[in-house]
């Protein structure tokens, strides 16, 4: 009977976390909350320290890992941020946000091939992730892979038909390939979905200049005068060199 009671007691103890583990979890949560408070006070250095302590106490603490990586990215430490985004992906391999943020960090480090893989993984994990396909396009463009960039921008637009930045960048990709007509259509679509998009108006005006459509270019100049005087002057100097 005594042996039975002892076995039962041990089984009950095993079913519940040890006090030390409970204290560690509580401390990790306290460290996380402290990190949030430091962020509110605009002390990213101390916030990062608190989130790192939370992760030390609970290595799989996803919220703390995300906040730590985000803060490190914010204070211009992309290499350290990438380390923690990779840890998140080890825990949640299909976490689209982590793949996306890792891609941003890799690109800041000049690791375009790694960035491309990360953005592709983000798109696979979340097929409607328009921003991931857009950033994939940006990275391809940085690598002078214009056709791949255009394909990525098209995917971004499929997911978000009002993605003005994707239309604009697609126009630049077409322009770099010498496809002036396609570039013009893309810029026109960009300003259609976002009428106050100054850079797209500038690119559209530039396209008109290249096609010797001065009156149309002047129309874009007039619009730019109300949006961005610097770009307006720049376009004016192209119209009247």
CATH domain fold name of the domain at 19-75: Serine Threonine Protein Phosphatase 5, Tetratricopeptide repeat
What structural class is derived from the secondary structure elements? mainly alpha
Tell me the number of strands.
Answer: 0
The fraction of residues in strands falls at under 5%
Name the shape in a single word. elongated
Overall mean pLDDT: 91
What is the chain-wise order of helices and strands? HHHHHHHHHHHHHH
The CATH architecture name of the domain at 19-75 reads Alpha Horseshoe
Structure, described:
This protein is mainly α and 241 residues long. The chain has a domain at 19-75: Tetratricopeptide repeat domain (Serine Threonine Protein Phosphatase 5, Tetratricopeptide repeat), CATH 1.25.40.10. 81% of the residues lie in helices and 0% in strands. It has 14 helices and no strands. The protein has helices spanning 2-15, 19-40, 44-57, 62-74, 78-91, 96-108, 112-125, 130-142, 146-159, 164-176, 180-193, 198-210, 214-227, 229-239. Helix 2 runs antiparallel to helix 3, helix 8 (130-142) packs antiparallel against helix 9 and helix 10 runs antiparallel to helix 11 (180-193). The radius of gyration is 26 Å and the shape is elongated. The relative contact order is 0.05. Mean pLDDT is 91; it is low at 1-25.
């Amino acid at each position: 009977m005594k042996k039975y009671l002892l076995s039962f007691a041990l089984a009950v103890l095993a079913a519940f976390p040890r006090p030390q583990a409970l204290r560690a979890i509580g401390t990790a949560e306290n460290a996380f909350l402290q990190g949030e408070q430091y962020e509110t006070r605009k002390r990213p250095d101390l916030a990062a320290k608190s989130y790192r302590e939370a992760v030390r106490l609970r290595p799989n603490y996803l919220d703390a890992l995300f906040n730590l990586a985000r803060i490190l990215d914010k204070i211009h430490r992309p290499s350290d941020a990438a380390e923690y985004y990779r840890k998140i992906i080890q825990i949640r391999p299909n976490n689209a946000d982590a793949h996306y943020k890792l891609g941003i960090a890799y690109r800041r480090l000049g690791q375009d091939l790694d960035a491309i893989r990360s953005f592709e993984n983000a798109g696979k994990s979340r097929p409607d992730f328009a921003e991931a396909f857009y950033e994939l396009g940006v990275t391809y463009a940085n690598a002078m892979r214009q056709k791949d960039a255009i394909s990525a921008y098209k995917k971004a637009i499929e997911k978000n038909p009002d993605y003005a930045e994707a239309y604009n960048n697609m126009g630049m990709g077409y322009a770099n390939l010498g496809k002036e007509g396609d570039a013009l259509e893309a810029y026109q679509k960009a300003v259609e979905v976002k009428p106050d998009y100054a850079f797209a108006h500038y690119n559209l005006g530039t396209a008109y200049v290249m096609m010797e459509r001065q009156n149309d270019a002047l129309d874009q100049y007039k619009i730019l005068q109300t949006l961005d005087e610097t770009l307006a002057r720049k376009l004016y100097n192209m119209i009247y060199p």
